[in-house]
Design a protein that fits this description.
There is one protein chain. The strands form three sheets. The chain has a five-stranded parallel β-sheet, covered by helices on one side. A three-stranded antiparallel β-sheet has the order 6-7-8. 38% of the residues are buried. By secondary structure, it is α/β, with parallel strands linked by helices. Helix content is 27%, strand content 19%. It has a single domain, classed as FAD/NAD(P)-binding domain. It is built from four helices and ten strands, in the order E-H-E-E-E-H-E-E-E-E-E-H-E-H. Flavin-adenine dinucleotide (FAD) binds next to helix 1 and helix 4.
């Protein structure tokens, strides 16, 4: 099963982390325009103070460790072909699930045919699934304001867990315990 994620900010890479860690082939397309390059985080729970670009470097390294394929490519179109999704970038890519994480840019959600709410944001349920089955929208695109990195990361995680729940056929939790630490890359991500 393949997951295509458009956007490699906190939302997209958070989704990618969970899907790849749990065995789904995951490709992230990103043009590196994340707002994180303008930010300094003092409000990301568990992290005291970190430059936004440094945070992105850590997050990219973390997802790379779990086998995410990151492509520095712009996605120009996405469409549902009845049996998954067609993603147009430098090459065409087919995926079973699609996670949109393009920041406040909602163009791809619109061309895919996702429903929008009264505020002009993409309509999603609590798992971040849009009105198009198996297509998710996460992060800044689903909120008119209240844009925070931790909220985007949470949206990405919610989308990924819903995808994993569908794939496993039962409610899925990505729970690890201290004894797992040695099994997961020696317990540390470089
Ligand atoms: C000046 C400033 C300061 C901030 N300070 C803080 C702060 O202190 N704390 C905090 O929590 N938040 C802060 N934020 C907000 C925070 O940066 C955002 O909430 C967060 O980056 C949103 O994450 P996201 O993943 O939804 O979108 P983004 O981080 O914007 O990521 C979207 C990604 O998608 C890519 N993309 C878009 N379209 C395409 C396409 N068609 N194909 C491929 N890639 C595409 C973009 O290049 C980008 O890399 C700040 C923002 C700004 C502007």
């Amino acid at each position: 099963m393949t997951v295509a994620i458009v956007g490699g900010g906190p939302a997209g890479l958070s989704a990618a982390l969970f899907t790849a860690k749990n065995g789904l082939e995951t490709v992230v397309f990103d043009t590196d325009g994340t707002w994180m390059h303008k930010a300094h985080l003092f409000n990301y729970p568990g992290i005291g103070s970190v430059d936004g670009s440094d945070y992105m470097e850590i997050l990219r390294s973390q997802v790379d460790s779990f086998g995410v394929e990151r492509r520095e490519e712009e996605v120009t179109d996405v469409s549902a072909d009845g049996d998954g999704f067609a993603v147009s970038a430098d090459d065409d890519y087919d995926a079973d699930y699609l996670v949109l994480a393009t920041g406040a840019n909602r163009d791809l959600a619109e061309s895919l045919g996702c429903g929008f709410d009264d505020e002009g944001t993409v309509e999603v349920d609590v798992s971040m699934e849009t009105t198009v089955e198996d297509a998710y929208a996460t992060g800044a695109m689903v909120r008119a304001e209240e844009w925070q990195a931790v909220i985007s990361a949470g949206d990405g995680a919610a989308a990924a867990l819903n995808i994993l729940t569908k794939e496993k056929g039962e409610h899925f939790h990505d729970f690890d315990v201290p004894d797992d630490a040695d099994a997961v890359f020696g317990g540390m991500v470089d």
